[in-house]
């Protein structure tokens, strides 16, 4: 593979990782909830597309459907489980872990444990600077960039975003200024879940759709957040670039196993010297 | 304006620090709460603001019970809180901090911004600056301005003179006193610094071991300063 082709692969993985990270980082930043069910929301997005394709719904319609469907699941999870335990961090970890097991097992019961395939909506490769590359992967990158841009525009250019950032910085003070935290928490968890669902939906044609598929993304997503800076949406970008880029490059030059070791070491070294992650560099 | 009767409150269940506070504040009045460290002054402010739920007693704002309300609802009823340590948003610009003062109040925009800038001109000059880079006195002005831009009926200040040089303390106290007089704003200030209390408050209530143990017009305390040490148990 040429260096340019490798760079495209790295950008592709990074962009999807960013899509998964944004939901996680916003949920953690605002609610201090480490959502261990995020991988299963990714999974639900992929299965939504699988079911939609099965009943004849076009792929491009199934993707926004996946976002909405998983956002509704997130809303229900918040209403039934999480809202009672937001102020108990250890309990939220246990609850979201339990939720992840329940969702995965429910998927096994309904769809079986076997791998299934989602047909890619675009199959013709395109020629880019002499490299033949999957057109669908390019579209995935574009979707990830557009979604990330939309999230950042909401966060940094709207009143809702200002309120969300204020709540991330100082939850109690935000409440004292009239912000209804309950409503903000509910919307954040729902949108965060929806974004994971959207990532699963766009990644479904590139992977085997099976009950374990979320696990492969949620761990690097957590590492990206740690490297970028916990609770920092901008840090999520840097973290995704470091983890996504290094995973792809080391996998190509050596093996995926070595890549995992390198990525873990990189994360440990970063956290050791920059406890606030890469976003902490700005404050130095 | 604010009636507190038999208020009991604490940070942990079954461990009340406030043990039956009775306090009445009339509209437009400026009252200081003084007391030694650990007597429950900040807890009283947090309980009025809805950040700590009372275990017993009653808090009424203009006759409406607010003791069980969450902080955002109390804020929307017209109570503004300037906490100890100011708690401005350091990564936000000054203008963004001021926007935060109206963000939870759908009927209010930034129409009061010019008035705020007239009261605190330094904020106009530095509106695009990151708030975390300002001095302590400027941050305190910003915290007060953020509270005032939401047009509150009652302003609750917790140790506003903490960590600020004396001439700025004077300036802030005089400004708040003038704003209260012109706007009809009710002020409750929790303070240990009598220099600020002397300028700002008309009446002082002393908080000792979770109870209001005495009250006095500020003018009397100026004339007889030994009453301050007596009432504060020093």
Automatic annotation (TrEMBL), chain B:
Q: Give the keywords, sorted.
A: Amino-acid transport, ATP-binding, Nucleotide-binding, Transport
What are this entry's molecular-function GO terms?
ATP binding
* Pfam families assigned: ABC_tran
Does Nucleotide-binding appear among the keywords?
yes
Annotated ABC transporter domain ranges read: 2-234
InterPro entries found in the cross-reference section: AAA+_ATPase, ABC_transporter-like_ATP-bd, BCAA_Transport_ATP-bd_LivF, P-loop_NTPase
| SUPFAM superfamilies reported for this sequence | P-loop containing nucleoside triphosphate hydrolases
Tell me which SMART domains the record gives.
AAA (SM00382)
Q: CDD domains this protein is in? A: ABC_TM1139_LivF_branched (cd03224)
Report the domain of life of the source organism.
Bacteria
Q: Which family does it belong to?
A: Belongs to the ABC transporter superfamily.
Q: What is this protein called?
A: ABC transporter ATP-binding protein
Say which species the protein is native to.
Kaistia terrae
């Amino acid at each position: 593979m040429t260096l340019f082709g490798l760079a495209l692969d790295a950008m592709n993985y990074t962009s999807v990782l960013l899509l998964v990270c944004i939901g996680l980082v916003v949920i953690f930043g605002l609610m201090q909830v480490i959502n261990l069910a995020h991988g299963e929301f990714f999974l639900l997005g992929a299965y939504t597309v699988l079911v939609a394709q099965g009943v004849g719904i076009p792929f491009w319609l199934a993707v926004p459907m996946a976002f909405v469907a998983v956002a509704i699941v997130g809303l229900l999870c918040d209403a039934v489980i999480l809202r009672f335990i937001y102020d108990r961090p250890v309990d939220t970890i246990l609850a979201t872990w339990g939720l992840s097991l329940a969702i995965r097992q429910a998927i096994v019961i309904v769809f079986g444990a076997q791998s299934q395939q989602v047909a890619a909506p675009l199959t013709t490769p395109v020629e880019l600077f002499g490299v033949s590359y999957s057109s669908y992967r390019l579209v995935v990158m574009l979707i990830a960039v557009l979604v990330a841009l939309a999230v950042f525009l909401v966060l940094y250019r709207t009143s809702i975003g200002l309120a969300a950032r204020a709540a991330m910085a100082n939850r109690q003070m935000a409440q004292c200024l009239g912000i209804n935290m309950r409503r903000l928490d509910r919307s954040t968890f729902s949108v965060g879940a929806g974004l994971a669902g959207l990532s699963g939906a766009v990644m479904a044609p590139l992977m085997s759709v099976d009950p374990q598929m979320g696990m492969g993304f949620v761990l690097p997503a957590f590492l990206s957040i740690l490297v970028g800076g916990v609770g920092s949406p901008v840090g999520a970008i840097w973290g995704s670039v470091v983890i996504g880029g290094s995973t792809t490059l080391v996998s190509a030059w050596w093996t995926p196993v070595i890549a995992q070791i390198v990525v873990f070491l990189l994360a440990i070294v970063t956290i050791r010297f920059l406890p606030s992650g890469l976003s902490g560099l700005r404050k130095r | 304006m604010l009636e507190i009767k038999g208020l009991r409150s604490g940070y942990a269940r079954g461990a009340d620090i406030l043990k039956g506070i009775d306090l009445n504040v009339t509209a437009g009045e400026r009252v200081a709460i003084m007391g030694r460290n650990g007597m429950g002054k900040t807890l009283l402010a947090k309980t009025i603001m809805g950040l700590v739920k009372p275990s017993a007693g009653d808090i009424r704002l203009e006759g409406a019970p607010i003791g069980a309300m969450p902080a955002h609802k109390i804020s929307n009823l017209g109570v503004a809180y300037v906490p100890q340590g100011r708690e401005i948003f350091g990564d936000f610009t000054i203008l963004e901090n001021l926007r935060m003062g109206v963000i939870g109040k759908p009927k209010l925009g930034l129409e009061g911004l010019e008035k705020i800038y007239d009261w605190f001109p330094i904020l106009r000059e530095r509106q695009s600056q990151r708030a975390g880079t300002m001095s302590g006195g400027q941050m305190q002005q910003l915290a007060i301005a953020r509270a005032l831009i939401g047009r509150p009926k009652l302003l609750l200040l917790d140790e506003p003179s903490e960590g600020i040089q004396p001439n700025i303390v004077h300036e802030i106290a005089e400004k708040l006193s003038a704003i209260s007089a012109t706007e009809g704003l009710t002020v409750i200030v929790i303070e240990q610094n009598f220099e600020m209390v002397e300028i700002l408050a008309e009446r002082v209530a002393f908080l000792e071991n979770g109870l209001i143990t005495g009250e006095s017009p500020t003018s009397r305390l100026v004339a007889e300063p030994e009453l301050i040490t007596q009432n504060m148990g020093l």
